[in-house]
Amino acid sequence: MIAQYLGAKKFSEVRKFAWNAITFNFLFGLLISIIMVLFSQTFLSFFNLEPVLFNQARVFLLIVGGVLFLQAMMLTISAIVQAHGYTRDTMFVTVGMNIINIIGNYLLIFGALGFPQLGVVGVAIATVVSQFIGLIVNFMILFKRVEIRLHLKDMIDWNKARFYQILSVGVPSAIGNLSYSLSQIVTTGFIVSLGQVMLTTRIYTLNILFFAIVISISLGRGTQIIIGHLVGAGEFEKAYKTALKNLRMSMLLCLGVAILLFIAREPLFQLFTDNPVIISTGGILLLMGIALEPGRCFNIVLGQAIQATGDARYLMLVTIIVIWALSVPLYYLLGIHFGYGLIGIWLAFIIDEWLRGMVLFWRWKSRAWERKVLVKKEKQKNEALG
Predict the structure, then answer these.
(1) Nearest CA to 304 among 131, 176, 198?
(2) 39: part of which helix (H) or strand (E)?
């Protein structure tokens, strides 16, 4: 919304949208934090963890999940800053948070330099502290760099039309993300049934593949900001071509990185383990990643471009219908029922990403999203009233 209003040069509305979003996400984040604390045991019971792992996971979830409102506010402020084009600032904040988190983990896991040796509790504390510091720094950037001033009135002045615009994009986006996350929880449950070795293989493989995933995420985020500005300014043709250009760039880069990761698979996995089963299975998954990652680019880059136009409801419906009607049953059939294990589940991942990606590609090519641009609708409404 902020990117669209910046593109339309409606600067007076930007501050109001920003503070409405921060307030709403604080309240929503607080609600999620409470749910995490109250139902932590219920959520974790799904994974059938051993008692020792279960207790450790619950402690971590109570601490980190209990302050998810910090992360909700931080992500909101970061999005506001990025929408203004200050993506480098948020990058430095993220890097700084990671450094603080790593140092905190070292001090509190091993009890270095006289700090208490807290294990999993230490990991959770380091995570929370780094998030809190990141939130403070993001607020400073918002005030000093972006120059969005704090007006208490904007935090409590909930204009109905403005609130609806935020929710019209935010709620479908949230539901789509929650649906995808829930499907991953279900999938993790399937993988847990295959044994600890396969679960570990999945974790290590995703850690390695993240080098490719981060490219599509970064280009998707950049595309979202640019598309928001362009459609807000009414430059639909430029927005259409920009998204497709960025998609091609993302696919080529991800494909190249995926190939390099496969070539270097053995030394990469040996950083984590010397288990031959994990290394061999993980190598097969990285080979399949050459097909998986370009498909993921469709969903990330075009998905965020579609969100930026205000067409978030379509993206939500595609995510829910494809994942739950096809993908999750396919995870079970290929991985569990037919006995192909983790490789079968990975094949289902590929089918899922490419199918959803093709649907989103068709949507973008159809240009139906042009009718969903919220600032454009507001202009038409004002002209009609005038």
Answers:
(1) 176
(2) none
